[in-house]
């Protein structure tokens, strides 16, 4: 499990390394263009099944900490879905990863 640190003082949000890697790509694309957005997700049962939302802005400190040493293979379809969500009026809503299409040589 990795950690997304956000703000000063930093709030910590735990995500699976695979999820965090996809979020890093989408966040960086938006923030490079100085585009702020809401990011929301649902907590697991262990955290009460609530919903959280962050206002993500390039003026707020952001740090990704991965538990594993290897970067996961990224799912292009999921990145496209997350990017489209981030560009919507409701902002980036974290959903389930779609099944990756088979890669053929």
Extended strand count: 6
Order of strands across the widest beta sheet? Answer: 2-1-5
- Which H/E pattern describes the elements? EEHEEEHE
The Cα radius of gyration reads 14 Å
Rounded mean pLDDT is 91
Stretches with pLDDT under 50, minimum 5 residues: none
Q: Work out the strand percent.
A: 25-35%
Question: Can you walk through the features of this model?
Answer:
By secondary structure, this protein is of the alpha+beta class. The protein has one domain (2-93). It contains two helices and six strands, in the order ββαβββαβ. Strands 2-1-5 form a three-stranded antiparallel sheet. A hairpin with an 8-residue loop joins β3 and β4 (51-56). The radius of gyration is 14 Å and the shape is globular. The model has no long low-confidence stretch (mean pLDDT 91). Pfam families: DUF7882. It comes from Orlajensenia flava. This is ATP-dependent DNA ligase.
Record keyword descriptors for this entry:
globular, 105 residues, three-stranded mixed sheet, alpha+beta, 6 strands, 26% helix
Briefly characterize the structure:
The protein has 105 residues and is an alpha+beta fold. Helices cover 26% and strands 27% of the residues. The termini are far apart.
